[in-house]
Protein 1
Amino acid sequence: MASELQNLALARSLLDRAAHLRTSDQTLDELFAKAKIFQVNQGKFSWSDGGSQSNQSGQANQLAQPNQNKSDSSLSGLIYLEPDSAQIKSPEFAASVAERFFLGLAPNGQPFFAINAPFPQGTENLVSLREVGTLLNDLEIGAVMHAVALANWHDVHPRCARCGEPTISILGGSTRKCPTCEAEHYPRTDSAVIVLVRDRDDRILLGRQKIWPAKRFSTFAGFLEPGESLEACVVREVAEEAGVSLSEIKYLGSQPWPFPASIMLSFTAVTDNPEAAEADGEEIEAIRWYTREEIAADIASGELLLPPGISIARRMIELWYGQPLEGVEAWR
Ligand SMILES: [Zn+2]
């Protein structure tokens, strides 16, 4: 994949979504019977971080340890269910089989499915992509990203947006259909731009949102509005939040961000009026211009907390810096 940005933790998928296999329920049943299946709910999934734990039902197939070499196809701590397990055959699960998601095929043909159903109360070792996204291998990251994003959408779209009647999941979970008015509904992804602003001296401008942990600064971001081009959105968001005008807008890459339903579209741009930079005081409460020397010094002194390594913002800042930056990560 051509991207200026390297090592985007959540954009490493090797899974073939194989959309042509979604149309036959019989095909899906056959694939399900030999699939790797995991359960997702509310952005969480089961994880084994030691190999000694098993999940609540004892039905889980214990697999390998979290792996350090994330780029190979060895398995991480993601816990899978056996296709013929008692848990899947239980009435609770049977009722949720309509919410099984066909996620795609591995390069070796292995099908991957997820089931979106509540975990039994008290289930331990539930984790989120924010916590273990970097530990999943390149195959599993695609499967889990697909599953979490789909589940987030299904959970809040139980009814038809046209007539208000209940809808059902069809085509392996890729679509919902209204049996009453026949309308089909497709998962939505919210586009957000994220911008690395530079000046002619090759400094970068970072801003700080009020809701972030103390000392956290990052690049500027905002949602695309209806009828707006990505370039216009880049210009508008940065003008609103930091008061500078932009030119030389260049696309850098993208990373899905299913918290709950975004994709981050990354751009770099140049401003010719760096002196005009000013926080809007609403979303952004402070801004700072950084040279490379200044950013290294502020990280070292603890005066600056960078966004986490799983975020595209961190990779954008490192792309400008020229190498990975160490330092404490701050969530949100
Ligand atoms: Zn309807």
Protein 2
Amino acid sequence: MAGRLEGKVAIVTGAGRGIGKAIAEAFVAEGARVVVNDVDADAANLLVKELGDGAVAENSAIGTVAAAGSVVGTALDTWGQVDILVNNAGILRDKMTHKMSEEDFDQVIQVHLKGTWACGREVIKLWRPLAKEETAEGRPHRKIVNVTSPSGLLGAVGQSNYAAAKMGIVGLTKTWAKELGSLSINVNAVSPTALTAMTEPLIQDPAQKAVRLARFALGRYGDPEEIAPSFVFLASKESDYITGQILCVDGGLVI
Ligand SMILES: NC(=O)c1ccc[n+]([C@@H]2O[C@H](COP(=O)([O-])OP(=O)(O)OC[C@H]3O[C@@H](n4cnc5c(N)ncnc54)[C@H](O)[C@@H]3O)[C@@H](O)[C@H]2O)c1
């Protein structure tokens, strides 16, 4: 099946590599045009070169209202619309709580939680008046797909900053689903696990790797390409009757 996102414009934050890159590639393959945001300008530009006319790069550091305005502004300036927002950009600053600095805490909360809130707020401000002008029958569903984590569902040692941010993103997801459902705006989240630059360092030590992989029912980390189809689904018409949900695409880590 192809063309499930034909005519749609999507924003994917943190799309220069890893899961975000796989999402941007899958969206373009399904006919969407994509704003490839990443603070790593080289990575974003490289991906846009690969994707061609269906993509444009944007290099703001997600985490502020100004950055959110710039990402949405890029979509509007380039294609005049936004239909899908994927809040994927993320960082880790792991430390046990007693060793964690204020900066480690603030940075992680800013990129994940405030970044998701700010980008969500920007598209919500854009979409509300549009949706109100449309009739319920004629109105297309608009989609926000957030990214949480097993850490945000279960908690995780050494990740008080990250787990709090990702749990906060669950709160944003459920709240926005309730606030915006009457305007046909669907808000869901994916809780992924994949082998990327973020997770590779966690399995360098063979003993630690064995302990980690034993927690997955399927016994392994996925590839980013195995995560991306869930985002296509949650961005497409096929999920118009799904909102406020957390979809675990994690090889059976959270059961
Ligand atoms: N990989 C996993 O197993 C896993 C598990 C749970 C959740 N996640 C979440 O999935 C998302 C993607 O993770 P990944 O594994 O692909 O990580 P990754 O480190 O491979 O990629 C993250 C991308 O985000 C970009 N980025 C970081 N801060 C940014 C900012 N402020 N503004 C814009 N871009 C920024 C980076 O440059 C990078 O290209 C993150 O939100 C992460 O927390 C990943």
